[in-house]
Structures are given as structure tokens and as C-alpha cells.
Amino acid sequence: MKNKLKVFRAMHDLTQEALADKVGVTRQTINAIEKSKYNPSLELAFKLAKLFDVKIEDIFIYVESSRRKEDYLGG
């Protein structure tokens, strides 16, 4: 999943540490999300969207996996 978290954080003049404090995670978590090394829980995604007063999909962009649909359906 891609994201625009760094853009929203910059627009609100927040450091990774300040953003982490506001949503109850570590700075390392924010860093990992921004680098697309970690996908946030649904709860954290909602907290971030609420903080920035946007929809989740404004921050997080789903990119479909290269796996085929049949792989998920067992076909």
C-alpha cells in the first residue's frame, strides 16, 4: 500500500515524533509507514485520517498485489 502520510505530516508542520505522540504510536512506526515498510492497523489509519480531517483513502492508496485473484480463491 502506498501512502501520503509524509505529505500530510508536512502540511501540518508535524515531526514524526509529534505525529506519533498524537496517535499513540512510536516515531519508528510513523517512519515505517511513510517508507511503506509497514501497513497500519485499521484503527491507526482511522486515527490518522481523523487527525488530518480527511478520508483514509486520501492518505492511503491501495495498490493491488501482483498475485492473481485465483491465488486467493484457491482456484
Write a concise keyword list for the protein shown above.
single chain; 75 residues; mainly alpha; 434 Repressor (Amino-terminal Domain); two-stranded antiparallel sheet; 6 helices; 5% strand
Give the mean pLDDT: 92
Distance between the termini: 25 Å
Strand content is 5-15%
Q: Treating each run of at least 4 consecutive H or I residues as one helix, how many helices?
A: 6
| Low-confidence sequence ranges | none
The major β-sheet equals: 2 strands, antiparallel
Query: Mind telling me the C-alpha Rg?
Result: 14 Å
Physical arrangement of strands within the biggest beta sheet: 1-2
The fourth-level CATH homologous superfamily is lambda repressor-like DNA-binding domains
- For this structure, what is the CATH class? Mainly Alpha
Describe the 3D structure:
This protein is mainly α. It has a single domain (2-73), classed as Orthogonal Bundle (434 Repressor (Amino-terminal Domain)), CATH 1.10.260. 57% of the residues lie in helices and 5% in strands. It has six helices and two strands; from the N terminus they run βαααααβα. It has helices at residues 5-11, 16-23, 27-34, 42-52, 56-59, 69-73; strands at residues 2-3, 60-61. α2 crosses α3.
